[in-house]
Structure to design on (334 residues):
C-alpha cells in the first residue's frame, strides 16, 4: 500500500478545488482497504469526487476507491442480479447493463462518480432512482472491519438520501452494490425532454439503449462538463413544502413550477427559486452559477472551496428571505 503525503486533491474532485490531503491512499481490493483503514487519522472515502466540496485541506487519510469488478449473481427468465464493486465508474456500469438490453438503470446514464457512492444519496435522474433497482449492498464497518449486507429496505433510501448520508455517515465503506435488472425492460421515457428527443428521432418503441442515448445527449447539452468548468452538479436539493404553503407562494408567483409528491407535499425546483433571486449566471469572484442552470454552482477558475461555500450561503439567504424556504445542500462538505 502506497501512502502519498500532502497530496493535492485537485484532480480528484470535479469542482477542481486545490485542497490537499495529509495522506492519500488508493485501494484496489478488500485487503488493501483493510490495511488502509489501519490509522488513527480521520478517514475520508473518495470515489469520483463529484459530490464533494473541499472547504479546507483534509487533515486525515483520503482512501480512493478503485475496487473493481462486475459479476452476475443469479438470473432467471425475467431478471438478472448483477453485482458491481464500488470502485466501478457508475456510467460505465450503466453502459455494461444497457449493452445487454437489461432495464432498470438506463435513466441514470452519465451521472458522474462511482458505484460505491451511488447509494449514498440514492442517485436519481429522469424519474428513476437507484432505490428502484438496488437489491442489496455490502459495506465494511470502518471501526470493526466487519462486512455487513444491507437490503434496499435497510438503506432507508429517500430523496437524495440514505442511512449512509445520515445515521451511518463515515461509518461504512460501501464495497459493492447488487442490482435487480429486467430482461423485459419497462421503458420510462415519460420525462418531457426524453420523450421529445425520442419523438424527434421518430422512435416509437424505444429500447433501453435508445433511452440511454437520449439521456446522454440531453445531459451533455445542458450540464457543464466538469473537466472544463468545475462543478458538482446540483448544489442544492429541491425543497419539499406542504401544500398550504405552496398555494401561498403560487398566489404571488403563479408561474411557480411544482411536482406533487405523496402526503400532500409539493416539490419545487430549487433552480427556479434561485433564478427568481437573480442568481442565474451570476458571477462572484472565482465562482458563480451556470448560465443554463442556476442550481449548478461553478468554479470559474481558481475558486477555493470556502469561496464556493460562502457564495452558496448567499444563495440560501436570498431564497429564505424571498420565499421563506430553506435550501438544503446536496453536496458533501469537508
Ligand atoms: C455534472 C454532474 C452531474 C450530476 N448529476 C447528478 C444526477 O443527475 N443525480 C444525482 O443523484 N447526482 C448527480 N451528481 C452528483 C454525483 O455524481 C453523485 O452524487 C455521485 O454518486 C457521486 O459519486 P462519487 O463517486 O463521485 O462520490 P464522491 O464525490 O467521491 O463522494 C460523495 C460522498 O460519498 C462518500 N462515499 C464515496 N464513496 C463511498 C463508498 N464506497 N462508501 C461510503 N461512502 C462513500 C464520500 O465520502 C462523500 O461523502 C452530479 C454531479 C456532477 C458533477
Amino acid at each position: 500500500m502506497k501512502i502519498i503525503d500532502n497530496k493535492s486533491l485537485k484532480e480528484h474532485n470535479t469542482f477542481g478545488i486545490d485542497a490537499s490531503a495529509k495522506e492519500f491512499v488508493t485501494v484496489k481490493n478488500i485487503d488493501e482497504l483493510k490495511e488502509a483503514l489501519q490509522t488513527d487519522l480521520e478517514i475520508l472515502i473518495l470515489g469520483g469526487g463529484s459530490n464533494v466540496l473541499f472547504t479546507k485541506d483534509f487533515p486525515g487519510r483520503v482512501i480512493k476507491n478503485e475496487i473493481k469488478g462486475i459479476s452476475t449473481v443469479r438470473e432467471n427468465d425475467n431478471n438478472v442480479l448483477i453485482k458491481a464493486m464500488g470502485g466501478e465508474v457508475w456510467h460505465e456500469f450503466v453502459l455494461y447493463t444497457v449493452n445487454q438490453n437489461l432495464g432498470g438503470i438506463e435513466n441514470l446514464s452519465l451521472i458522474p462518480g462511482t458505484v460505491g457512492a451511488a447509494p449514498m444519496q440514492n442517485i436519481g435522474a429522469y424519474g428513476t432512482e437507484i432505490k428502484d433497482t438496488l437489491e442489496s449492498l455490502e459495506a465494511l464497518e470502518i471501526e470493526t472491519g466487519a462486512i455487513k449486507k444491507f437490503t434496499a429496505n435497510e438503506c432507508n433510501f429517500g430523496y437524495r438520501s440514505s442511512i449512509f448520508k445520515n445515521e451511518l455517515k463515515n461509518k461504512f465503506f460501501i464495497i459493492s452494490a447488487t442490482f435487480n435488472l429486467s430482461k423485459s425492460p419497462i421503458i420510462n421515457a415519460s420525462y418531457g425532454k426524453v420523450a421529445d428527443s425520442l419523438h424527434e428521432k421518430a422512435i416509437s418503441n424505444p429500447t433501453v439503449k435508445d433511452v440511454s442515448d437520449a439521456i446522454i445527449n440531453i445531459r451533455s447539452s445542458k450540464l457543464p462538463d466538469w473537466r472544463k468548468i468545475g462543478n458538482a452538479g446540483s448544489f442544492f436539493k429541491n425543497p419539499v413544502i406542504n401544500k398550504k404553503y405552496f398555494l401561498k407562494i403560487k398566489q404571488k408567483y403563479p408561474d411557480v413550477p411544482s411536482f406533487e409528491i405523496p402526503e400532500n407535499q409539493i416539490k419545487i425546483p430549487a433552480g427556479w427559486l434561485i433564478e427568481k433571486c437573480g442568481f442565474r449566471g451570476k458571477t462572484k469572484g472565482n465562482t458563480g452559477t451556470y448560465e443554463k442552470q442556476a442550481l449548478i454552482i461553478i468554479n470559474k477558475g481558481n475558486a477555493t472551496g470556502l469561496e464556493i461555500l460562502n457564495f452558496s450561503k448567499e444563495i440560501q439567504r436570498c431564497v429564505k428571505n424571498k420565499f421563506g424556504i430553506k435550501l438544503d445542500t446536496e453536496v458533501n462538505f469537508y
Summary: The radius of gyration is 20 Å.
